[in-house]
Amino acid sequence: MTIRTRFAPSPTGFLHVGGARTALFAWLQARANQGAFILRIEDTDLERSTAESVQAILDGMAWLGLNHDEGPIYQTHRFDRYAEVVQQLLDEDKAYHCYCPKERLELLREQQMKDGIKPRYDGKCRNPGVVPEAILPVVRFRNPPDGNVVFDDLVRGSISISNQELDDLIIARSDGSPTYNFTVVVDDMDMQVTHVIRGDDHINNTPRQINIYHALGAEPPAFGHVPMILGQDGARLSKRHGAVGVMQYRDDGYLPQALLNYLVRLGWSHGDQEVFSLEEMVKLFDIKDVNRKASAFNPEKLDWLNQYYMKTLPATDVAAQLAWHFTDQGINTQEGPALEDVVTVQAERVKTLKEMAAHSRVFFETYDEFDANAAKKHLRPVAAESLQAMLNNLQSLDDWSPDALHDVIDTVAARLEVGMGKVAQPLRVALTGTGVSPSIDKTLWLMGKKRSLEGIAKALDFIKARIAAQ
Ligand code: GLU
User: Which of 142, 346, 370, 455 is 20 to 30 A from residue 190's alpha carbon, by CA?
Assistant: First the structure.
């Protein structure tokens, strides 16, 4: 059997963390078994679905690298198919037209509540009677009147629901539009989905859907309902807890690898291992190992993983993500160091890619003025000698590598009989305009020869002017 899974979001908002984790689990279940992963956009709610949400979902999936083999399939393109299956059920008397007016259903509901019984349709239209004129009927599924629906949830274990608890579900509204529980069955059946992995907010729908599969003569897929994600305060994760849209994590400077690793650990584990490459996840994941308990979101752990991946992923992979942040911050990187080199130098020093880009602006843009405090403190007359010596030595240096640059600084410090810091600090201000940057040899390296020499000359001019003004 080929494993086929799907992610079936409703495009009524961005791809949030909970949805992304569901998508990841479904994707992993397919990839772990050389199966197929389908992306289906459940856009039948025309009022709440938006094109922007569809785009946000596609962007989120692409950014996370959760590629699909089939789709995106839009439910709105399948209305003819749903109508066909509704008709089939009507023809086979497995569904029926219901003419009950809203008022009657409301009264029925009120009465049932008063009598302390679970509100459900009483089946008045189950047996054909006089067809009232001028009422457009809905179509109801004829749910089996007795017996139990039993299924073995891959996450939650065995679940049994009495059919007496289940309503004769409306499968098509009076305007002909199909409803969620029905379209999802037709789709999962037609798309030959073998494993439905979704949030446990759908668990109550599953018995109803299983009955529809049976009515259609189809074998229901396996179901795995994953628990929700909680905020640290134990409440369901929401905007209140900070960023919940996946693309917000991109904007905030997280690597997709870090977010994926973080998400997979929300509810799934393998021993006490915390770090999983995507390949490892694919190798080890099984939906059956997902914990049935809700898991809580822990931003510090995500930060830790982000730093871990910034330091350990191939610099080219990190650079590809970093490029987006430079553009986002209006930093033109056409001229300047290779982004991989920036990553190698900065990864240890920052928490996010957003910070990395911000702190690296100086390698691509010439600063206008020295930071006043840094200049006051470090560009003093005594610094002129070491800056001049650095300028002379660097002018003739051909090998612009961190090691060679380190040697030049050592040589100058030794000749002037001062500590490295005495050379480095004025030099840092000369190069970056500020008192903070990576180690001085790496700063020189990233800055490049031309701009390093220009910066030192500028600092020397500043000191000269300062002396003249005294
Ligand atoms: N469209 C549903 C949702 O976004 C998911 C349906 C399903 O996975 O069966 O909640």
Answer: 142
Query: Which one of 363, 385, 404 terminates a domain?
Result: 363
Q: How far apart are CA 96 and CA 142, in angstroms?
A: 7
Proportion of the chain above pLDDT 70, given as a percent: 99
Q: Is there a single domain that holds both residue 377 and residue 326? A: no
Q: Which pLDDT tens digit goes with each residue over 392-426? A: 999 999 999 999 999 999 999 999 999 998 999 99
- Chain centroid to Cα 17, Å, comes to 6
Determine whether the shortest distance from the Cβ of 184 to ligand 1 is under 6 A. yes
Local confidence band at 242 (pLDDT 50, 70, 90 cut-offs): low
pLDDT grade, residue 379 (50/70/90)?
very high
**3-state class percentages of the chain: helix first, strand second, coil last, to nearest 5:** 50, 10, 35
| pLDDT exceeds 80 at position 317 | yes
Over 80: is that where the pLDDT of 243 sits?
no
Q: Is the CB of 9 under 6 A from ligand 1?
A: yes
Tokens of residue 101, six digits: 């007016």
Residues marked active site are found at 239
Decide: 42 in ligand 1 pocket, CB within 6 A.
yes
166 within domain boundaries: no
Atom of ligand 1 nearest to the CA of 188: 9
DSSP-derived secondary structure letter, 98: E
- Ligand 1: atom nearest CA of 7 is 8
Residue of the CA atom closest to atom 6 of ligand 1? 8
**For residue 234, is it within any domain?**
yes
Residues 38, 73 contacting (CB under 8 angstroms) = yes
Cα 8 to ligand 1 centroid, rounded to whole Å: 5
